[in-house]
Each structure stands twice: as structure tokens, then as C-alpha cells.
């Protein structure tokens, strides 16, 4: 969803990366603006994606990547049998609770990367067929990857939201601004 990240808002490379990540998070957050939980869990296309599911997925993925970078075990373990659960609300989960969870993940992400000496700090990538053995990446890569992941799903959210009620990203930006006064 469209946002403008003014240059003066960030000041340096780390600030810019965090500002662009937050701008993409904002697109996903706005996608559920004014919707009920029932509306946000609808799947109006051939895809299995819902707005609530996208938000939950992106929050879990961000948390997982930061835990990987910190070389900590993942708080939420997913495998091929449970991967689909990252795309749907379960039990007493709501859009509000999922957004609150994501806000906490975002806070921890920023706290972690701001405490680093620089963005060249590296961490080992998880073992996976798509990564070379013993691969490492920088924190800069991590932030760019989170921006990419969030932006990809913000685009999905645009299509889903427009399919639900015809509201476009531009309409939702205007509604959010009006609500903020």
C-alpha cells in the first residue's frame, strides 16, 4: 500500500531501512482498517490467503528471522505440517491480538538492530536446500529481506481488500489519515 517515507524521517541507513520496513507494515495494517474479524479472515480469491492470515504470517516470519539472527531457537516452530497455521487465526486469536503481537515483534526487531554496532554484523542462515552450506548474511540483508517479505504480502493484501469491499490502498490511506485527525 502506498506510503511516503520522507528522507528527514530516518537520518541514516539503519533509520531508512527501519522506516521503509515500517511503511510496508503500515500497508498490511491498513488492509484490515474497519473490518471485522470475520471479514478479515475471508478468502475472496482462488488463493487460501486472508488479510488476518497475512498479518499473522508476516509477524511470525519477522520474529523467526530476528531470532535466527540472534541465534536463538524460534518461539514458534513451523514445519511442513504446520506451515499453513501461520496463515490463519487459531483458537482465541483475533485481528487485534495479532496486530498487538506484530507490534511487539516490530518493537523487538528495532531494539535488536539498533543495538548492533553496524549492519555488517553477520549471522548464520538456517540450513535449507536453497541456501549454500554454512551460509551467512548481514543484518543489512536481514532488514532488506524483511522489507521484501512484508511488501510482497502488502501487495497481496491490496488485492484481497479490494476484492472484499472495493477499497483500494489509496482509500485506506485517506481513511487512516481522517481517523487520526
From TrEMBL:
Protein name per UniProt: DinB family protein
Lineage: Bacteria, Bacillati, Actinomycetota, Actinomycetes, Kitasatosporales
Amino acid at each position: 500500500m502506498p506510503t511516503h517515507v520522507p528522507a528527514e524521517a530516518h537520518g541514516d541507513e539503519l533509520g531508512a531501512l527501519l522506516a521503509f520496513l515500517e511503511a510496508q507494515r503500515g500497508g498490511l495494517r491498513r488492509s484490515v482498517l474497519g473490518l471485522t474479524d470475520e471479514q478479515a479472515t475471508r478468502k475472496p480469491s482462488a488463493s487460501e490467503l486472508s488479510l488476518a492470515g497475512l498479518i499473522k504470517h508476516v509477524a511470525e516470519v519477522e520474529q523467526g528471522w530476528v531470532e535466527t539472527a540472534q541465534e536463538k531457537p524460534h518461539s514458534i516452530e513451523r514445519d511442513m505440517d504446520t506451515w499453513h497455521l501461520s496463515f490463519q487465526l487459531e483458537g482465541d486469536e483475533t485481528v487485534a491480538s495479532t496486530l498487538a503481537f506484530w507490534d511487539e515483534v516490530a518493537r523487538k526487531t528495532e531494539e535488536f538492530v539498533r543495538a548492533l554496532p553496524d549492519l555488517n554484523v553477520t549471522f548464520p542462515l538456517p540450513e535449507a536446500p536453497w541456501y549454500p552450506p554454512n551460509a551467512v548474511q548481514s543484518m543489512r540483508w536481514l532488514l532488506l529481506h524483511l522489507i521484501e517479505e512484508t511488501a510482497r504480502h502488502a501487495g497481496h493484501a491490496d488485492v484481497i481488500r479490494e476484492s472484499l469491499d472495493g477499497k483500494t490502498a489509496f482509500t485506506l490511506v485517506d481513511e487512516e489519515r481522517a481517523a487520526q485527525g
